[in-house]
Amino acid sequence: MSCEVTTKDRAGIINPMFDCQPAGAQYAGIGVKDCIPLVHGGQGCSMFVRLLFAQHFKENFDIASTSLHEESAVFGGAKRAEEGVMVLARRYPNLRVIPIITTCSTEVIGDDIEGTINRCNRALKEEFPGREIHLVPVHTPSFKGSHVSGYAECMVSMVKTMATHKGVPSGKLNVFPGWVNPGDVVLLKRYLREMGVDATVFMDTEDFDSPMLPDKSIHTHGRTTVEDIAHSPNAMGSIALARYEGASAAEYLKAEFDVPCIVASTPYGIGNTDAMLRHISELTGKPIPESLVKERGIALDALQDLTHMFFADKKVAIFGHPDLVIGLAQFCMEVELKPVLLLLGDDNPRYKKDPRILELQKTVDWDMEIVRNADLWDLESRIRDGRVAPDLIMGHSKGRYIAIDANIPMVRVGFPTFDRAGLYRRPTMGYQGAMELGETIANALFTHMEYTRNREWILNTW
Fold first, then answer.
1. Tens digits of per-residue pLDDT, 207-249?
2. Confidence category of residue 461, pLDDT binned at 50, 70, 90
3. CA dist., res. 422 & res. 57, Å (int)
4. pLDDT of residue 74
5. CA-to-CA distance for 65 and 22, rounded, in angstroms?
6. Which end of the chain offers a freer environment for a tag, N or C, measured as fewer CB atoms within 10 Å?
């Protein structure tokens, strides 16, 4: 039996499952209050990303574009970036942060973003004396990495730009959950509140699930403020829950300001949630309350009702963000599901040394393949030619046609999910998330049994 990390054996991509770096940078940017990302590139580099966000959250987000055309490709687009910054400053009086996000075109032509920012700062100071707008250089060429690395790049760039000095200790905890849904942010904040921990979540996307109020005001925005970022060096510690999305910012604070840092396994499943709570307790000195012990017990009881009878030995294929995919694989193993194929959509060389993957290699007693730089053809082709025969597929909505064509039940999880209602407000992390995810998997399998008449009698004996 083997568990190996391989790389896609084709140069091209068929049916991509990941987006480009600027997409991830835009997601990090909209998590900050009074922030409008400015995408320095063609119009489509922001338009199609905004469409993805709108599909997933059913909300609209402010993202600007320098909208480069042929002239800029020949003579450079710096002037367009300068004009974009000034237009945003004039149009939005409450604007405080503008990440200037490069794309493949502006990186290839070599636009000097840092020089552009210096010129913009002088122009802003002259036209808006006394007003501070933080211009953040975010280098995200689309021809390398993915939206996962783009998110991480924007996170660390904003911290470097706004967290410039250490001041009075705040007694707060920095929490970097990575690219997660509002439902996960709400759950993490509840856990921290029940532990009595004063914490800042980077980025706080709770209000992406925004209300429709009688006064028709719009509340779809990030909750993380400029002050939150500026005071991050004063925290008692940082915990990163996403090795490939939030850890770089936490590690920068440790290296630059000596803020204690723990990079934890993403809290999918019982064991990873246990570890997260222990880490938070170690950093803050706060005990784990009985309310969370009880929630853990409820989740365990719900999962054991399903595990041996319905989940045991069923094979699962998982695709999506690396922290999500690896965490889901660990959760599957807790409930006796067998992850046989993990697809990671970029070529990050760090995957082979990821401690969680190394642990999987020591633990699994069946064949498991982990594919770097994968696309959805890697899933489809393996199913078609019989190299894998999963009983369940887990991943975002872009893989739905593979599941439909192969008649395999699928559980939607990750980004983007747009063909099932309200998934962005449901947690996947924590004890509650583990319980709800387990029940979602069970219901997907039950529904498939009913439609295929495959062992439907089991449901009558439960």
1. 998 888 888 777 778 999 999 999 999 999 999 999 999 899 9
2. low
3. 8
4. 67
5. 12
6. N
Identify whether the C-beta of residue 268 lies closer than 8 Å to the C-beta of residue 326.
Answer: no
Token pair for 145: 């990495």
Q: Closest by alpha carbon to 29, among 248, 203, 239, 230?
A: 203
Alpha helices in 111-181 (DSSP H): 113-127, 147-162
Q: What is the mean pLDDT of residues 379-389?
A: 96
Which H, E and C letters describe 357-417, residue by residue?
A: HHHHHHHCCCCEEEEECCCHHHHHHHHHCCCCCCCEEEECHHHHHHHHHHCCCEEECCCCC
**What Cα–Cα distance (Å) separates residue 32 from each residue in 18, 163, 407?**
23, 14, 41
Whole-number Cα distances in Å, 51 to 258, 396, 453, 458: 40, 16, 38, 42
Is-contact 417 423, C-beta < 8 A? Answer: yes
Q: What one-character DSSP code corresponds to residue 353?
A: G
∠ CA(13), CA(349), CA(45), 5° rounding? 45
**Counting beta carbons within 10 angstroms of the beta carbon of residue 62, is it exposed (0 to 12), middle (13 to 18) or buried (19 or more)?**
middle
pLDDT at 460: 64
Please tell me the total number of residues recorded for the chain in this structure. Answer: 462
**Terminal C-alpha separation, the chain:** 33
Other beta carbons within 10 Å of 175: 26
Does the pLDDT at position 462 exceed 60?
no
pTM for the full predicted model: 0.94
DSSP 10-44: -SS-SS-SS--HHHHHHHHHTTBTTB--EEES-TH
Please, which pLDDT band fits residue 2 given cuts at 50, 70 and 90? confident
Query: Would the pLDDT of 198 be above 90?
Result: yes
Q: What is the CB neighbour count within 10 angstroms for residue 215?
A: 4
Predicted confidence (pLDDT) at residue 9 exceeds the cutoff of 90: no
Classify residue 308 as exposed, middle or buried by CB count within 10 Å of its CB (0-12, 13-18, 19+).
exposed
Percent of the chain with pLDDT over 70: 97
Could you tell me whether strands 315-320 and 392-395 are parallel, antiparallel, or unpaired per DSSP bridges? parallel
316: helix, strand or coil: strand
CB atoms within 10 A of CB 349: 9
The answer to whether 25 touches 37, Cβ cutoff 8 Å, is yes
> Quick one: pLDDT at residue 246?
86
Distances, alpha carbon 130 to alpha carbons 26, 87, 117, in Å: 27, 18, 18
For 169-180, give the DSSP string. Answer: ----EEEE--S-
Burial (Cβ within 10 Å: 0-12, 13-18, ≥19) of residue 409:
buried
Query: How many C-beta atoms surround the C-beta of residue 50 within 10 A?
Result: 18
The two structure tokens encoding residue 328:
């889901």
